[in-house]
Amino acid sequence: MTQDLHIMPPEAPMAMPAQDFSTGFRDAQVPEGKNPSAGFWRALAFSPAMAATLGLLWVMSDWFGAEGINLIEAILLALISFNFFWISFTVCTVLLGMVSLSRQEQPKREGRPQPLRVALLMPVYNEVPWNVLGNARTMLEDLRARGGQHHYAMFILSDTRDTEIAAQEQASIEALRTTLAPGLELYYRRRAENKDRKVGNIADWVSRWGADWDAMLVMDADSLMTGRAILRLTDSLARDPGAGLIQSYPQLIGAQSVFARMQQFANGVYGIAFAEGLARWCGQEGNYWGHNAIIRTKAFASSAGLPKLRAFNGQEKLIMSHDFVEAGLLRRAGWGVRFLPRIRGSYEETPPTLIDHALRDRRWCQGNLQHLKLLGSAGFRAVTRFHMFHGAVGYLMSPLWFALLVMWALIGQGEDASVLHYFSPDNPLFPQWPEMTETRHVLIILVMYAMLLAPKVLGVLALPLSGVRYADFGGGSKFLTSFLAEVILSILYAPILMVQQMIAVFRTALGLQKGWSPQARDGGSYGLKTLVMCHTLETISGIALSVGILSGLVSAWLAPIAISLALAIPLSALSGVSAGAARRVVGMKEDVREPAITRSARRHRDELKRLIEGKGVMTPAE
Fold first, then answer.
1. The pairing of beta strand 251-252 with beta strand 346-348
2. Closest to 29 in 3D by CA, of 306, 301, 377, 239
């Protein structure tokens, strides 16, 4: 192909200035009106979590402090208390979600919303074209079937660099456009240079075509949404003139491997109550996850243009995890950022293996740690700073907990059985680690483990409140089997993920995390060499812990962590097992009743793939 395909409507420029983090900004376009406060729900989420953490700190201080608390003990207490707060906060959020779901609120009678022109934006970068365009066709046809007063058009915004994929991409566009029903709009643009990655891709569209569109619904390359979900998001934005962004709750689909099915089960079962609680305490100050959200175009253009960050060496750096920052900038300007988890039919895919998940996590770590530089920016709301801090802390806690794990192992079960004692008998920093033999000590440990499990159990109990039945999973016994399998697998994978996140933090800190490569959609099996290279640190750590436990130097409470780390290589291999074996391990309600939208998408994907590979013809839409 000698010339790139470029099918776009006439340009309609819109200014999108880069924002200044050193000065506040209020958008004059924000309409005056009531902005309901979430202060009551916020107090219900934060206060019990803080009280529980202070209670634990008091008990453990008394536990450690028989002979005074030294430096190492103080560090241990701080780490335990800090982590316990986030666990408690998660439990409180899920409880809020249960309360919210149980409330029988009468729906408000609202008039017909103002018609909006909405651009469905799908940025792509070296993606499988028939998968992307199969989803695009499915959404356009579902919107046409739904009808309604809003006007929609799909824009495939390509940053593809691979020439072979680009050729397939453009051939797929031409083939699809010949079969779309009259009135369905599909546009395509491939940038000559992918300046500033997805941020630059969206900004390019806004600055060149944005003025013709009231709103843009931003997706990822693997996004799939029902026409009903898109219409509900559009109606919500149309009825709330002060809203700048409304985020849906993307649910996971398409999981085939053990690891992906574990993630999809957790998302579809535990995530519902958590998302409901999150929406309650966030109120108008929600967050943005970069996809499956509708955004008011003029608000985004005037308020959310991203500047470059200046690094310590003087170079300008792109803001990587842009979504958190864009939500914060919209809120700073006065626009509402809302989260509507009850809008169902918003889907995305998940990495298929533990290694694919870790690779994606490295990119997210790089972006989230960058947010620490923005916490002092002028004008950001307190909740925005909390979102950013929370995202960064989620990664920083992993190296801290690994250090705690090492310290606990070295301290052992008491002064007489301590590795530290053997190496340095006169060490003045040696803590008087509790023997953990008294009933109260055991109860504290059990309470901490129970708190880790509580969000899952509460999520299961909240499921009927959301309208989902246990029978939807193939019956109560099948649901219970899947639940137990997910719990066991998550316990086994958690220490491995901790180590992988620690590696991601150090790679970012040392500047070893280069680039922002696209997510692996298909993944699959990895060879033994790759598995060993990825999980050497976990394996060595697990073997060392196991030896320490068997020799009596390390507490047996660390046995679950030791087993997980020692078996990191086979567990990682297990994560990619798919087909029937994965279904038997973790069952999901999609196995019993697949959503119609995913069946349609799969049919359109396969049809387009056969056509591009010369094995078939496209079926025109009716």
1. parallel
2. 301
Where is pLDDT greater, at 180 or 440?
Answer: 180
Say which residue the tokens 């958008």 belong to.
27
3-class secondary-structure state, position 319: coil
Residues in the chain: 622
Strands 224-225 and 346-348: antiparallel
Q: How far is CA 202 from CA 50, 122, 158, 280, 541, in A?
A: 40, 9, 10, 29, 44
**DSSP calls for 365-403:** HHHHHHGGGGTT-TT--HHHHHHHHHHHHHHHHHHHHHH
d(CA 462, CA 272): 8
CA-nearest of 575, 550, 574 to 562 is 550
pTM over 0.85? The answer is: yes
What is the Cα–Cα distance from 430 to 414, expressed in whole angstroms? Answer: 10
Q: How high does pLDDT run on average in the chain?
A: 87
Q: How far apart are CA 349 and CA 252, in angstroms?
A: 5
Partners of residue 245 on adjacent β-strands: 295, 337
Residue 524 has pLDDT above 60, yes or no: no
Crossing angle of helices 271-282 and 39-64, in 10° steps, is: 110
Q: What is the mean pLDDT of residues 170-185?
A: 91
Q: Which two tokens stand for residue 74?
A: 């103080």
